[in-house]
Amino acid sequence: MYRSIRAAALSIKPLKWDKPANADKLETFVRRAAAEGAELIVAPEGFLEGYVVMEAIQNPELRADMWDIAEPLDGPYVQRFRRLADVLGVVLCFGFAERRADGIYNAAAVLGPDGELCGTYYKTQLAEGTASSWDFNRLGPSLRAIDTPLARVGTMICNDRWNPDIARAQVLDGAQVILIPSYGSRARRQNLAVIARARENGVPVVEANVGVNLIVSKGEVAAYTWGTDRVTTATIESPLPPSEANARAMESQFLAWRGPEMQRRYERTLENYPRAKGP
């Protein structure tokens, strides 16, 4: 038993340190995806500010600038995209640096079709590691799925996708779809990792990476696009949550299919082995 969802991944490339330009670009591509029928739209990691954390790591003098450009959840750009999700009637996930009282987090906001903030996920595995003094690059504290009107979703940000435990914990928390905002590797092995997360957990995955989009449904690649500034759409099949009603409906569907199918196979067997019918 599945729910069909029209999903879109955006492989858009942001400008470093330019939130106004990036917000305008994100809105343009979100509108384009919605015009193509997308109900669920995923944009890359750190898109609002241009994913500048590595610049701040390499140049400590930029760390104060991270605090200036990071966006609180009630900030004007998050509010702008809440309004846009409402206008377009879509579920929207995008990455940004979130400013909180205790530091800055690599965040992904999940917005609902009425403009509600369904939830926020914080990157839990950093390729660059972390230190207590790095208040500009905090680790996410939990692995929790997020309810949306389309499905309960799990989120992995970029480097998280390499760790199967991060996906599995959220699927065990009820996630029916995994969203991956990314700004990282475009190598073949990253594609294989994304496909593996889908197959391990029996759920579709929508990855929006800068330079490549990958959508996986029922363990197979539903859509793949190489290059920047692209919109990739595909229909994904989100499994319905476990329940007695859904189990019995799936059972009935299988039994209805089985009768005619077994007859067809029996007839094929007789064509190949006429004596199989017996006396």
What do you see in this structure?
By secondary structure, the chain is an alpha/beta fold. It has 2 domains: 2-240, Nitrilase/N-carbamoyl-D-aminoacid amidohydrolase; 242-279. It has helices at 19-35, 53-58, 63-69, 76-88, 164-172, 188-201, 244-272, and strands at 2-10, 40-42, 91-100, 103-111, 117-122, 146-147, 152-155, 177-181, 205-209, 212-217, 220-226, 231-239. The strands form 2 sheets. Strands 5-4-3-2-1-12 form a 6-stranded mixed β-sheet. A 6-stranded mixed β-sheet has the order 6-7-8-9-10-11, covered by helices on one side. Helix 1 (19-35) runs parallel beside helix 4 and helix 5 runs parallel beside helix 6. The chain starts with a strand and ends in a 7-residue tail after the last helix.
How is the largest sheet built, in terms of strand order?
5-4-3-2-1-12
Percent helix range? 25-40%
CATH class of the largest domain: Alpha Beta
Radius of gyration: 22 Å
Indicate the CATH architecture of the largest domain.
4-Layer Sandwich
Estimate the global geometry from the Cα principal axes: elongated
Specify the oligomeric state. single chain
Short description:
With 279 residues, the protein is an alpha/beta fold.
Topology:
Blueprint: E1 2-10, H1 19-35, E2 40-42, H2 53-58, H3 63-69, H4 76-88, E3 91-100, E4 103-111, E5 117-122, E6 146-147, E7 152-155, H5 164-172, E8 177-181, H6 188-201, E9 205-209, E10 212-217, E11 220-226, E12 231-239, H7 244-272
Parallel strand pairs: 1-2, 2-3, 7-8, 8-9
Antiparallel strand pairs: 1-12, 3-4, 4-5, 6-7, 9-10, 10-11
Helix pairs in contact: 1-4, 5-6
